Structure formats: structure tokens, C-alpha cells
Amino acid sequence: ALKERQTSGSLYYDEVLRSELLEESELEKVFAKAIKDGEFYVVLQPKYSLQTRRLVGCEALVRWDHPGKGRLAPSQFIPLLEKHNLLVTLDMFVLEQVCTLIKGWQNKGLPIFPISVNQSRSYLFNTHYERTLVDLIDRYGVSHQLIEFELTESLFLNDVKHLSLVLASLRSHSFLVSIDDFGSGYSSLTMLKDVGIDVIKLDQGFLKGTDEHHRGKVVVQHVIAMAKQLGITTVAEGVETSEQAQMLQLLGCDVVQGYFFSHPLEISEYEALLIDDRLPSS
Ligand code: C2E
Ligand code: MG
Ligand code: MG
Ligand code: MG
Predict the structure, then answer these.
(1) Is the ipTM of this complex over 0.90?
(2) pLDDT tens digits for 141-181?
(3) Measured torsion, CA atoms of residues 218, 220, 225, 231, in degrees rounded to the nearest 10
(4) Which residue is closest in CA terms to ligand 1's atom 29?
(5) Measuring CA to CA, which residue among 83, 84, 68 is closest to residue 16?
(6) Cα–Cα distances in angstroms (integers) from residue 149 to residues 108, 167, 253, 280, in the given order
(7) How far apart, in whole angstroms, are the C-alpha atoms of residue 54 and residue 280?
(8) Ligand 1 within 6 A of CB of 258
(9) Residue 97: closest CA among 39, 30, 170, 179
(10) For 46-83, what is each residue's pLDDT tens digit?
């Protein structure tokens, strides 16, 4: 149901944006100006280890502070940008923001944890992309182990082979790679079997109903166990209740992310967690 709402939401805003941007060239202009004027920015959602009950890092999530429409969520603009091949530019912008943040924290002597960034599917079709990405990170002198790339499972339905190559290449540069929204597509087991990955992020929908339904719980339990045996870290996303958190701990899930622990935070709020990295007592 959430997926449906997000989809219709994005269609709606797609229409709103499109009606104002009749020409594609106009969208490009609006987008370029928005980047230049600092209308895009990132928020950071903490991830916690269930074992140590401490911060282990965060995910960078993009927002658009649109002058006329206010703060837009990714579902309200990402589909349109993707359609017009502008998402790669946005992803690169987000990555640069993340590098700037890590560099800044290093200069301030703050403890540093890895940050994950989401990557669009366009990635697969641009051979120069990886070079550009590595060059950017190296220009900032950010250690590769501090950057994790999240690629969404369902976007690669027909490209598992290609995805596998892209991820192997990223890992050869010592970046961490994760499969986002794991369990939302139909290739989850193939991913585990054939694709070299460091992390799987269990989709929120995958966890839905696990409180009441034995079957759901058994599936999640065994996915976590399989991942563990394969040396893959499991992250549960969209954790909203203490019941879910307790169940995930019982099932041996490594890391949690969700509103129950923290909403995505402004940068200054997240910085405070670098100093006090304990799980907020609940
Ligand atoms: P995602 O990568 O799966 O990110 C998790 C989404 O779930 C985020 O939505 C986050 O705010 C939301 N969330 C976190 N905890 C909870 C919870 O407890 N309950 C619920 N209901 N939701 C929770 P957001 O920020 O709206 O982003 C949506 C999607 O947009 C992301 O899903 C990701 O696929 C995409 N996205 C975000 N930033 C970027 C970006 O910089 N580049 C690209 N290519 N995609 C991005
Ligand atoms: Mg993600
Ligand atoms: Mg996800
Ligand atoms: Mg996603």
C-alpha cells in the first residue's frame, strides 16, 4: 500500500512539475539552477547496531527545497529526473556533499562512520560513471571504506549479470555495496547466490506482518541466517515499533534503521550523534 501511495504521489507531482516545465530543456535549466542555488540538500538517517547498541553510520537521503512548492521528498521528483537523465547528476551532487561532510568531520577531529548513498539505475548504462565517481572521492581524500553504495534490487530485474559486474568493480575499489529494498523484487535469492555484496537492506514491506504471521517471520529469519553464513551484513529498514526491533534482535539482524530509532536528521543534529553514539534509550 505504501508503494502504491508513493507511486501515485510521484505521478501527481510529476504532473505538477511537468505542467510547469513544458519543454525538457526547461527542466534541465530549472534543475541546474536548483543545484546552483543550493535547493537540494541531504538529510542523514542514523543506523544502529543491535549488538553493540551504538551508531554504525547513516544513509544520505536527498531533499529538494523548492522555492514555490516547499520541501519535496524524493518520490516527488526522482522519477521525473530519472526520465530526463538528470538523476546521475543529482547522485553525483549528493556524493560530493557526503565527501564534504566526511572531510569536515575529519578536520574537526570527530569520529567518522560510513555513509551510504543511493545510486540510480542509470549507473549501469554509463561507462564513465565509475571513473568520475572514484576521481571525485579521491579528490576529497575520503577513504573508500567510508562510502557505501546502495542499489535497489527491483531496478535490476533483468540486469542481474550486469549489476554483478558493476558491484564487483566497486568492491575492487574497497567501497561497500548494498542491495536496497531487498525482498521487494523477485530476484532476491539470485542476488544472494550470484552477486558479491556486503550488505542487504531488508525492505520495509518484507518485514510487514511479521508480528502476526508465522510464515513471514520464518522467511525473514532464514534470509538473515543465510546472509550471515554468506558473510553479508543485514540491515532492517523502516523499523517503526519496539516489537519489530525486539523481533529483529531475536532473529539476529545486525543493523536497524527506522523512525523508531530516528527520523532522517539535519546535518547538525547528526553531528551530535557522532559525539554521543549510543542508541537512544527506549
Ligand atoms: P530508500 O533508499 O529505501 O530509503 C529509505 C526511505 O524510507 C527514506 O525515504 C526514509 O526517509 C524512509 N524511512 C526511514 N525510516 C522509515 C520508517 O521507519 N518508516 C517509513 N515509513 N519510512 C522510513 P525517502 O527519504 O523519502 O527516500 C525514498 C527513496 O528515494 C529512497 O528509498 C531511495 O530509493 C530514493 N532516494 C533518496 N535519496 C536519493 C538519492 O540521493 N539518489 C537516488 N538515486 N535515490 C535516492
Ligand atoms: Mg537506500
Ligand atoms: Mg530501501
Ligand atoms: Mg529504495
Answers:
(1) yes
(2) 999 999 999 998 877 777 788 888 889 999 999 999 999 99
(3) 170
(4) 74
(5) 68
(6) 25, 9, 20, 26
(7) 9
(8) yes
(9) 39
(10) 999 999 999 999 999 999 999 888 999 999 999 899 88
